[in-house]
C-alpha cells in the first residue's frame, strides 16, 4: 500500500506521507509556483514535476530524492512552425505551436521512456528520462487532430495517457475536446475511436462526432486493460474493448457530471467518481462533497460521504485530482478549495488531511 | 557592449547574472546572452522564438517597441533590463 501522495497545486508540490498519527505534509517543493502535475516513476524512483511559471513558461523538473533536490530538464516544446504557417482552431482563432501546460505525464514501456500530453494539443515522447522530447508527428499531422477545440482552456489538450500494461506499445489518449485516440505501435500511427460517446450539448449533426467528444478523464483497469472508464462532459461512459466503443452509464448518483474518474487496479467492475452539478454552477450537488463508487461495472452506485464535508462545501475536484493506490484500498482526492481527503478503505470513510492547501490540480500515490 | 540584467524574481528559477554582451539590436544582445547562459532562452522566449507574453524588456529605461522582431536598437552603453510584465499578475 502507498504511504505517500504527491499533491500538485497552484502554489507548489506537496509531499504528504502516512505517519503513525495520520497523514501529514512532509515537504513542499516549488512553494509559490504552479505545479500542474507530477509523475512518480516507480521504475527508477524519479519524481517529475510539470510547472507553469506564469511569466516564464512551462518547465519540467526531476528529483532523484523524492523532492529534496531538483534538476531542470528540457520541457516538451513544439518544433518551429513552418515559415508562414498559420494554424487556426475550428473557430478561426490562432492555434500556436506552443506548449501551454503539461497535462499528462506517464511512464512508457522502455527504460527511460516517457509520454507527455499538453494543452496546446501536442503529444511528446522522451526516450531518455525527459532529457529531450520529440513531438509525435503522426498524431499532430493527423487531419482529424485539426478538428479539436478547447475544453476548459482556450486550446485543446491531451490529459489522459493510458499505457497498456501488457503491451506498452499500445496507448489510448483522452483529449479535451478531441475524443479518444489509440496507437498500437508506440505512436507510429494513431486511430480515432470513441464510438458510442455523444455530446448532447453539441448541434445534432455533431452529437456523435468522435473527433470532438469532450472526454474529461480516462482511467484504465491495470489487471483488465480492456476495461476503461471515462468521465465525459456529457456523463460517464464505460468501455469493454480498450476504449474503442463506449456505453453510457446513466445511473450515477448524485449526478453524472464531473471531471475525474479512478479505476480499481485489479477489479474491473470497481471505479470511483467525484460528481458535481454540471455546467451551470460546477459545485458539489447540494454543496455536499461525495464520492460515487460502483462495484458492478456501473449498474449501481454507492454515494460515499462518511468523513466528507456535508454543509456549504464548494469543493470541485479536477481531472487529475483523484487517485487510487496499487492495492485499490487507498484513495486520495483534492479540491479547488484546497481540501485533501484520503480513504484507506476503498472510499467507505475519509479523513480530512487539510482544508487550507492551495487549489489542488493533481494527486498521485507513490 | 550592452549590459543585460534581470529582475531578481527570475533568479528564483534560473541563474541569470548580469552580463555585458555584444549586439546592435535587442535580439542580437539576447542571443549573445543565451550563448553564455543557454537555460535562459526558454524563460524569455517561447519555442517559436517569440517573447513570452508576460515578459517585458526595457532598453535604457524605455519599454521595447518591437515585441515581434525584437529589433529595438541597442548601443554600446545601453542598459537592458528584463522583468516580469505586471499583466502576468
Layout of helices and strands, plus pairs?
The complex is a heterodimer of chains A (366) and B (89).
Chain A: E1 4-9, E2 12-19, E3 22-29, E4 34-41, E5 46-53, E6 57-63, E7 71-73, E8 101-107, E9 114-119, E10 123-126, E11 134-135, H1 137-140, E12 157-163, E13 171-176, E14 179-183, E15 191-192, E16 215-220, E17 228-232, E18 236-239, E19 247-249, E20 258-263, E21 271-275, E22 291-294, E23 302-304, E24 322-324, E25 331-334, E26 340-343, E27 351-354, E28 360-365
Chain B: E1 2-6, H1 8-11, E2 19-21, H2 26-36, H3 41-44, E3 55-59, E4 62-63, E5 79-84
Parallel strand pairs in B: 1-5
Antiparallel strand pairs in B: 1-2, 3-4, 3-5
Outline the structure in words:
The complex is a heterodimer of chains A (366) and B (89). By secondary structure, chain A is an all-beta fold. Chain A has one helix at 137-140, and strands spanning 4-9, 12-19, 22-29, 34-41, 46-53, 57-63, 71-73, 101-107, 114-119, 123-126, 134-135, 157-163, 171-176, 179-183, 191-192, 215-220, 228-232, 236-239, 247-249, 258-263, 271-275, 291-294, 302-304, 322-324, 331-334, 340-343, 351-354, 360-365. Chain A is built from one helix and 28 strands. In chain A, the strands form seven sheets. Chain A has a four-stranded antiparallel beta sheet, with no helix packed on it. A four-stranded antiparallel beta sheet of chain A has the order 4-5-6-7, with no helix packed on it. In chain A, strands 8-9-10-11 form a four-stranded antiparallel beta sheet. In chain A, a hairpin with a 2-residue loop joins strand 2 and strand 3 (22-29). The termini of chain A are close together. The relative contact order of chain A is 0.12. With 89 residues, chain B is α+β, with helices and mostly antiparallel strands. Chain B has a single domain (2-88), classed as Ubiquitin-like (UB roll) (Roll). Chain B contains three helices and five strands; from the N terminus they run E-H-E-H-H-E-E-E. Chain B has a five-stranded mixed beta sheet with strand order 2-1-5-3-4. The model of chain B has no long low-confidence stretch (mean pLDDT 94). Chain A binds chain B through residues 33, 53-57, 59, 72, 75, 77-81, 96-99, and chain B through 10, 13-14, 39, 42-44, 46-49, 52, 54-55, 84-85, 88-89.
